[in-house]
Design a protein that fits this description.
The protein has no helices and 11 strands. The chain is mainly beta. Strands 2, 4, 5, 6, 9, 10 and 11 form a 7-stranded mixed beta sheet that branches. A 4-stranded antiparallel beta sheet has the order 1-3-8-7, with no helix packed on it. It is globular, with a radius of gyration of 13 Å. The model has no long low-confidence stretch (mean pLDDT 95).
Amino acid sequence: QLHLVESGGGLVKPGGSLTLSCAMSGFTLNYYAIAWFRQAPGKEREGVSCVNNGDGTTAYADSVKGRFTISIDNAKNTVYLQMNSLLPEDEAVYFCAAEKATMILCGVTDHGGFDYWGKGTLVTVSS
């Protein structure tokens, strides 16, 4: 059974950095697209970044471009989200999601297109 577990969230000061991890089991990452979404209290879930391991494409929300980097370690079946220069508006619960690569267009497919989800990890940005 496909299983995703996020980790790495926590409290960080504005301008600080965090690296989130999404460890996956039950499937081979090579044939999947993985995305990070976030949801702040009272707001809709929004896409943050996506990587399609099938065609190598990546995508980022405009709000995080230049600050966040998504990467894959296929040997560890883990996807990372390096977050730098964090802002208070980055505070949210961050979720990773997976779907077969052929069904995902990174940057276009929204959260409804992903069937497999982790439970999330909280990122708090506060001084």
